[in-house]
Design goal:
Elements lengths: L3 H4 L5 E6 L2 E6 L14 E7 L9 E6 L22 H9 L4 E3 L8
Antiparallel strand pairs: 1-2, 2-3, 3-4, 4-5
Keywords: Hydrolase, Protease, Thiol protease, Ubl conjugation pathway
Protein name: Ubiquitin carboxyl-terminal hydrolase MINDY
GO molecular function: cysteine-type deubiquitinase activity; K48-linked deubiquitinase activity
Length: 108
């Protein structure tokens, strides 16, 4: 029998399977699950357990950023532009969001 806390988590948690590797994307703000206004700018953490990851990555997600705020020399829609798989997974829920790795080199 599955406990109610496992069916309805109190904190946002996503299990990610990207390019044959698995990780956990999670937040510490329980209101992110129930209040859409919290989805403007928020923080998520990513942990994969891979050798190259020495600490949990702290990501800042901005769902209301504007294209002109991005680096003008880089067009994210061009075919040659590559984004980390975790960012692409995040954008399946929050289309057009910008993801800041807060000083951590994207590794996944």
């Amino acid at each position: 029998q599955v406990r109610p806390g496992l069916r309805t988590p109190r904190l946002p948690v996503w299990l990610c399977g990207v390019a044959g590797r698995h990780g956990v994307l999670f937040g510490t703000d329980s209101l992110l699950l129930s209040d859409w206004r919290r989805e403007r700018v928020f923080h998520l953490y990513f942990y994969s357990g891979q050798r190259e990851q020495t600490k949990t990555a702290h990501l800042t997600i901005d769902t209301h950023s504007h294209r002109w705020e991005e680096d003008q020399s880089e067009d994210p829609s061009s075919p040659g532009t590559r984004r980390p798989s975790v960012e692409m997974a995040i954008r399946t829920k929050w289309v057009g969001a910008t993801v800041s790795w807060n000083g951590t080199d994207p590794f996944f």
